[in-house]
Amino acid sequence: MCGKEVSSLSNASATLYQQASFALLALERTPAVARSLAEQLVQALGAHPVWMEAEAHDRWVAAISHLPYLAANALAAVTPIEAAALVGPGYLSTTRLASESEQMMMDILANNRENILPMLSAYRQQIEVLEKALQNNDRSALQAQFHFGHEKHEEVLEKHRKGIQA
User: Fold this and answer.
1) Which of 45, 52, 89, 141 could form a disulfide with 56 if both were Cys (CB 3.0 to 4.6 A apart)?
2) What is the pTM (predicted TM-score) of this model?
3) CATH fold of 55-135, please?
4) Pair 50, 24: CB distance under 8 Å
5) CA geometry: angle at 166 spanning 36 and 60, to 5°?
6) Are 58 and 43 in contact (CB under 8 A)?
7) E strands, 44-162, where?
8) Is the dihedral of CA 52, 57, 61, 64 positive or negative?
9) pLDDT tens for residues 152-165?
10) How many angstroms separate the CA atoms of 46 and 43, rounded?
11) Which residues 6+ apart lie within 8 Å of 134 measured at CB?
């Protein structure tokens, strides 16, 4: 998983795949020699091969790639132009994906919508929990949600680090 929010040859990078996770989809009919060559190619690029089934790939990229694009796009869409004078690192990092190629994302979303829709629904539920806590001025509910999000983030990152080191 790697990429940039900008495309074109002038934005190419020789180190794009360095330390990236690279999904390889397991097919029963794929010979062992082809699997080995695929792994060698991925490693030559500096990436970490991760073997998985196609269905798992589609579910997981909906969570870690497609939903973040939608969230970044929605955040950018509701940002008042007048706030531009105060834009800082937080806004830039959370909305960076909104600069992705619209056509590429339209194609991705159309081809993986059955996995993206449940993720979008779960995300909406999390936003509603935050909204309700704010409406009720419920600091303990906010704290609990922040803690849950923080812990989940750390858990995902730890598993990611362990997977890369394996």
Assistant:
1) 52
2) 0.84
3) 6-phosphogluconate dehydrogenase C-terminal fold (1.10.3660)
4) yes
5) 80
6) no
7) 48-52
8) negative
9) 999 999 998 887 65
10) 5
11) 142
Residue 155 token pair: 């858990």
| Half-sphere exposure (Cβ direction) of 80: Cα atoms closer than 13 Å | 4
Task: Return the domain boundaries, the chain.
Answer: 1-52, 55-135
- 8 Å CB contact between 163 and 21: yes
The pLDDT tens digits of the residues spanning 75-131 come to 999 999 999 999 999 999 999 999 988 999 999 999 999 999 999 999 999 999 999
Residue 70 tokens read as: 């939608």
Q: What distances in angstroms separate CA 134 from CA 66, 118, 120, 128, 141, one per listed residue? A: 27, 25, 21, 10, 9
C-beta of residue 47 within 8 angstroms of C-beta of residue 17: yes
The neighbouring-strand residues paired with 51 are: 24
